[in-house]
Amino acid sequence: MTLLALGINHKTAPVALRERVTFSPETLDKALESLLAQPMVQGGVVLSTCNRTELYLSVEEQDNLQEALIRWLCNYHGLNEEDLRKSLYWHQDNDAVSHLMRVASGLDSLVLGEPQILGQVKKAFADSSRGHLNVSELERMFQKSFSVAKRVRTETDIGASAVSVAFAACTLARQIFESLSSVTVLLVGAGETIELVARHLREHHVRKMVIANRTRERAQALAEEVGRRGDSPQRYRRTAERGRHHYQLHRQPAADHRQRHGGACA
């Protein structure tokens, strides 16, 4: 039996690909059932956040194992195998355990040492434990990673000034503007990080927030949660033009940038 960790993250894949590989909470159980239906998979945990999607698996060794798992992931999400293969990383046995320990400790995060990831890993483990874990080796792998993450935080200074991406963005905004109470903020997207940004901004009494998302329903739902207004992408420019500063979002420059950089976001 072999332990595997495979996935993509903010270092290997652009946002557009990460969004397509995401497993939503509503579909997670079905995804795990589909994954465990693969003959070589004995147990699995799916970690899916804004910055990474990873599968932690206990598998039976077989020929073309990597190909079979890549094929499953591509078929499930409707992806081109070559597009995914370029961004996918693959760790086995001790390397898989070490990778999970780095992830849980915040050493592999966009913001080094950010505390949010440990809770996300614990939630992924708990969600998968509802009938999908199946293998004691996988459980020991996660429990040991939780223990290591705790030691890293208590015995080093990694968490002394660590913040989430959302908190860092709000802190920067407060450094730029004398007071957020006179500022209108346009938030593009409605995912987990944007939700945290919105909550931080609300705590600092920002004058107005406009949340724009590809699906207006999700933007509206988040806006209602934080007591603000949801919007559609077509209104980006109009909203930006009301501001006092000159930076605006334009479709063509963004498209040109993505074409030049293979979909990467600056």
TrEMBL record:
Binding positions for substrate per the UniProt entry: 49-52, 109, 114-116, 120
Residues the record marks as active site: 50 (nucleophile)
Family per similarity comment: Belongs to the glutamyl-tRNA reductase family.
Organism encoding this protein: Klebsiella pneumoniae subsp. pneumoniae
GO MF assignments: glutamyl-tRNA reductase activity; NADP binding
Keywords: NADP, Oxidoreductase, Porphyrin biosynthesis
Pfam family, one: GlutR_N
Binding-site residues for NADP(+), renumbered to this chain: 189-194
Subunit structure: Homodimer.
Keyword DNA repair belongs to the record: no
Catalytic activity: (S)-4-amino-5-oxopentanoate + tRNA(Glu) + NADP(+) = L-glutamyl-tRNA(Glu) + NADPH + H(+)
Signal peptide start-end: none
Xref: InterPro entries: 4pyrrol_synth_GluRdtase, 4pyrrol_synth_GluRdtase_N, GluRdtase_CS, GluRdtase_N_sf, NAD(P)-bd_dom_sf, Shikm_DH/Glu-tRNA_Rdtase
Annotated region described as Disordered, given as residue ranges: 226-266
GO biological process: protoporphyrinogen IX biosynthetic process from glutamate
Domain Glutamyl-tRNA reductase N-terminal: 6-156
Biological role: Catalyzes the NADPH-dependent reduction of glutamyl-tRNA(Glu) to glutamate 1-semialdehyde (GSA).
Protein's UniProt name: Glutamyl-tRNA reductase
Gene3D superfamilies registered for this protein in UniProt: Glutamyl-tRNA reductase, N-terminal domain, NAD(P)-binding Rossmann-like Domain
Listed EC numbers: 1.2.1.70
SUPFAM superfamilies referenced in this protein's UniProt entry, alphabetically: Glutamyl tRNA-reductase catalytic, N-terminal domain, NAD(P)-binding Rossmann-fold domains
Domain Quinate/shikimate 5-dehydrogenase/glutamyl-tRNA reductase: 172-228
NCBIfam families xrefs: hemA
